[in-house]
Design brief:
By secondary structure, the protein is mainly alpha-helical. The protein has 7 helices and no strands.
Amino acid sequence: ASKAVSQVVDYINLHYHESLSLDELADLVYVSKYHLSHEFNRQVGTSVYRYIQKKRLLIARQLLGQGKRPNEVYSMCGFSDYAGFYRAFRAEYEISPREYAQSIRPRGEENNEFI
């Protein structure tokens, strides 16, 4: 893997919760966005945008698994609004964030909030 691509992957993995653009990432490693886009696709097997999206959704799943609420999770993962997060989550996992959170919650915990 080229140094530029591995630097961008490392940067995305640390800054997934921030607003990220191809222009900014290319500037970060001193290459054109076209070169970065092509090399990233060639080496990682997906687009920069798709990689960021998948990373954010994986983190969202982990946070939901830890009991965080979907309406908290989206902003922690770098999504600018809940609707965009909801659509991306549903497209990736074929289940809504809330349904996912409920499906992995241990049985018996559902009623604890009323105790």
